[in-house]
Every structure is written in structure tokens, then in C-alpha cells.
Amino acid sequence: MSPRTQATKQKLFDATLRLARTNGMVGLTVDDIAAEAGVAKGTVYYNFGSKDGLIDALLRYGVDLLADRLRKADEVEDLVDAALSYFADYPAFAQLLVSELWRTPGQWHETLTLLRDDIVSIVKEHMQRLADDGRLPAGVQTGTAASALFGTLLVVALDWQVFQRQRTRDEVRESVMLLVRGLGPNP
Asked: Where are the transmembrane segments (predicted)?
């Protein structure tokens, strides 16, 4: 992909996230997105084929960025910090994920299922290490723990960005880590 094409796609992603954050996805039109991005309406169709194609690509792009950050985490605390840092950098993406993940079944349900599975598998690796160290209570499945941690991070990050902006990321991270540390005996 040429740098120009990538720059255009980035402008469209940024515009869509700005609009989604203030107006939500319902009723968002290609005209709105193009106007916000400062491009012709045809640019959206040329690059993505439709609004749905744009949203699908945006979801994939956003989750790929999150997955890249999470994969770099060595410990659960690093993973929590990476997720909170990401959602601080992209608060509109957290809002979009929450709204679309909980809609049953949403327009982008298939894409979101694949993307959610990718993120949860990364978190599950960390949960498995905790389980292997005896730090998960007996009977807790690593998949359930991974889903719980991802869901917690997503909702806590959104709550922080919308309702508790005065809190620092360190304060939010420590609150989540107190919860995580309480899962089992500390070594």
C-alpha cells in the first residue's frame, strides 16, 4: 500500500472515530465521514467499498494495534498497562468496541468475534502462566479468566475515559492489578 493510500485510510479512520465518539455509529453516513475527513465521498468507496467496509477495516486496524501492544507485555501488569495505555490513546476505539461487542448480533459481529478471539488468546497466555504458577483459584478456567480480564480492562478503560478522567493511568492500573492479585495466593 502506498504511503498516500495509507495516509488517506488513516484520515478516514480518524474521522470515523471522532464521529463515533460524539455521535455513535448509528446513523453515521459516508457523507459524514468524508466531510469530517476532508475528502470526497468517492474516496470512502474507492478505499473501502462501503461504510460497512470502512468500519470493518477500522475494527481490524484498531484491534491489530491493541494486539501488537499486548504481545509485547511480559507480565500481567505489563499487559494491563499496555491495554490501558492503548485505550487512553484511542478512547473512541474503546467506546466503539464496547458498543459493538455487546450488540447482539451486531452488523460486524463476525469480524468482532475473530478480533475478540485474537485479543483474548493473548490474554489467555498470561492467564495460563498465572495458572501454571498456582495463582488462579482452583477450577477457574484460563479462557474464562482471560475473557474476564479483557472485559474488565475494556469497561474500566471506558469508564475511566468517560466518567473518571481525573484519575491517572497508574491509579486505574493499580486498581485493576489489586483485583488481579486477589485472584489467588500471592507468591
From this structure: none
Lowest-confidence region among 26-30, 146-150, 152-156: 26-30
Q: Give the pLDDT confidence of 23-73 residue by residue, as tens digits.
A: 777 778 999 999 999 999 999 999 999 998 998 999 999 999 999 999 999
What single letter denotes the amino acid at residue 150?
Answer: F
* Structural domains present in the chain: 1-49 (1.10.10.60), 51-181 (1.10.357.10)
Q: Which residue has the cell 465521514?
A: 33
Q: What is the pTM of this model?
A: 0.86
- Spatial distance between the Cα atoms of 150 and 76, rounded to a whole number of angstroms: 11
Q: Which sign, positive or negative, has the C-alpha torsion 41, 47, 53, 54?
A: negative
